Every structure is written in C-alpha cells, then in structure tokens.
User: Which sequence fits this backbone?
C-alpha cells in the first residue's frame, strides 16, 4: 500500500505537527476493513502510534482478508486486558446511579470497544480516539459524554467539518470549518454563540488560522424578519459580548459571507462579510445538508464530524468515510491532543 500525502497546505501542517508529536490514537472499529487500511496508512505515514481494540486472532484474520500488513501493531483485547478491572472500577465510580454494579461496568468495557477506547483516553493510556466508520454518531458520543465528559466551562459539545474545496477563491484558499454539521439538532441562541466561539478557537489553535466567523441565515443585516433569524441575531450578540476579541458577525447570507463584492454591498463595514472561513449554521438541518452538498457538488474533501468541547479528543467519522478520511481525522486528533483545552474553549 502506497503512502498517501495531504492535498492542501493546511493539512500538510497538520501532518507535520502530528508526526512530531507521535500521539497514541485508538481505533476501536477493527471489524471494518476501512479502519484497518487506515491504520496501515497512519503507520506508514508516521502520523501516530495506532492502538487497535479487538480479539487479536480476529483482527489478524480481517487484516489478511483486507490485504493489510499488520506487523508490530498494538492490539488490545478488553477481555484479556490487565487494565479492565481498574477501568471498570473507575467507570463504575463515574457512572454511579447509572450503572448498577461493578460487573455491569466490566461487561460494558469488555463487550463494547467504543467504551473501552473512551476509557483508555479518559485514563490517559491513549491520547485520542477516532470512531464512527461503522457506528452512528450517537454510538460514538455516548461513551464520550459518559466517560470522557465535556471540558470545564463549555456549555455544549458540538461537531464541525473541516472542508477543503478545490480551486476555490473563498475562505482560506478553499479551507473552511462548518459547524454545527453533525451534533446539535436545534441549538438555542446561547448554544449557537458557544458553538461559534468554540469553532473560532478551534480554527485558531488547531489549524493556526485567524478565524472570520459568519453566523449564517437567509437574511443579511435585517433584509428579512422571522423568529429563526432572530435566533441568529441574538446568538451573534451573545458571542460578541463573550468574546469581543474574535471576528464574529451576522446575520449573513452565504454569498455575503463568502464573496467580497457582495459582502461589501450587503454588509458594509462588516469585519467578516466577504472573507468568512468559519461558517456557523443555525441548525443541524442546514449544517449537515450544506457539508454534504459541498462535498458532492464541489468535489470537496470533508473531514469529520470532528467533536469539539470534550475534555479529551474523541472524534466521530461519517459512516460513508474512506480510509484516507480516517487518516486525516486521526492526524487532526493527534494535533488536538497537543493543545490544552483552556486554549481551545476558554
């Protein structure tokens, strides 16, 4: 299998940072051949130390079927792990009132690899986890919220997509963050403000790019009136009050956010209009539809959904992901694991 390379300068920087750090990344979905192929790619590209979860014989059999070279991979079987008793005790303490017994906690860890992977991250035997190729977002987030938990001071965890649009003059040479495009169905104005702030700080601290954040709507600066526009206006006000140091503006239509001449005409004086690289959608309907349309119609690369707001990095995948997508998400997770969370979400 040939070594893949990133296709955008921003992802090249992410790969460089990941290679320098050599973080320990857990891939728990070893029943999926895309994950096994991605593990081999990550190793060959030297992006991280990969930890696989599963029965060793079954993993090797699946790897052989997928024609994946698995020499020297760390494979952990929860059923025979010397850490499972310790993890079970800690998870039982964390989930008292929700888990009835120590045996139940142990059974959960032994039989659900997502829970075991989340425990490894929580208790610092791994630096991050990537899953979701063969599980729903709810399946991935459940152990993340129950074991890893949200970071101090963050009101809501959210999901963004890193989008790379080829031959695009907008954003950061075609690079954007779309949020929330995979997590919160209908955020309140307060939650939408926090999503905007968190995504701006993700852009700044993970990707090293100054954020210009557009709070999107079907209205630009009062061109239309409706309660769903009012939510965006209120969220923009809250975000600016909380973090006046960040470039957040709205409400803006998509063309006003992206196109300089339209931004100047529709929103003169806006610090964001015509130069947005962070796009905040009013609800999950619009955010999820937009990223899928961008990916398919513009032939964009879409990495995510990447979760922000957890105390340690656990990240979801689209179930339609390719092995290359998993590799790039793992690289982002490896970089995220290097950034203290007060810098990301404060």
Assistant:
């Amino acid at each position: 299998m040939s070594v893949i390379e990133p296709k955008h300068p921003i992802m090249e920087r992410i790969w460089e940072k990941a290679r320098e750090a050599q973080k320990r990344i857990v891939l728990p979905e070893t029943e999926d051949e895309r994950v096994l192929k991605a593990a081999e790619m990550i190793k060959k590209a030297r992006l991280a130390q990969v930890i696989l979860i599963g029965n060793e014989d079954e993993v090797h059999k699946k790897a052989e079927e997928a024609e994946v070279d698995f020499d020297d991979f760390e494979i952990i079987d929860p059923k025979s792990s010397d850490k499972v008793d310790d993890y079970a005790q800690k998870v039982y303490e964390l989930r008292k009132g929700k888990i009835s017994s120590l045996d139940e906690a142990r059974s959960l860890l032994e039989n659900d690899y997502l829970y075991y992977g989340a425990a490894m991250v929580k208790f610092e035997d791994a630096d991050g986890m990537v899953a979701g190729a063969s599980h729903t977002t709810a399946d991935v987030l459940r152990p993340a919220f129950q074991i890893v938990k949200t970071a101090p001071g963050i009101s809501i965890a959210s999901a963004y997509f890193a989008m790379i649009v080829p031959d695009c003059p907008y954003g950061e040479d075609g690079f954007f963050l779309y949020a929330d495009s995979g997590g919160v169905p209908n955020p309140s104005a307060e939650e939408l403000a926090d999503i905007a702030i968190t995504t701006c700080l993700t852009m700044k601290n993970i990707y090293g790019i100054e954020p210009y954040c557009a709070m999107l709507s079907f209205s630009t600066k009062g061109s239309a009136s409706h309660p769903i526009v009012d939510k965006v206006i209120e969220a923009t006000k809250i975000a600016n009050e909380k973090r006046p140091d960040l470039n957040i503006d709205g409400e803006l239509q998509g063309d006003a956010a992206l196109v300089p001449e339209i931004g100047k005409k529709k929103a003169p004086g806006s610090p964001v209009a015509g130069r947005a690289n962070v796009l905040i959608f009013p609800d999950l309907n619009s955010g999820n539809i937009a990223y899928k349309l961008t990916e398919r119609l513009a032939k964009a690369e879409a990495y995510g959904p990447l979760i922000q707001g957890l105390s340690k990095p656990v990240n979801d995948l689209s179930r339609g992901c390719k092995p290359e997508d998993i590799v790039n998400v793992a690289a982002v997770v490896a970089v995220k694991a290097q950034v203290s969370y007060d810098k990301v979400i404060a």
About this structure: The first strand starts at residue 24 and ends at 27.
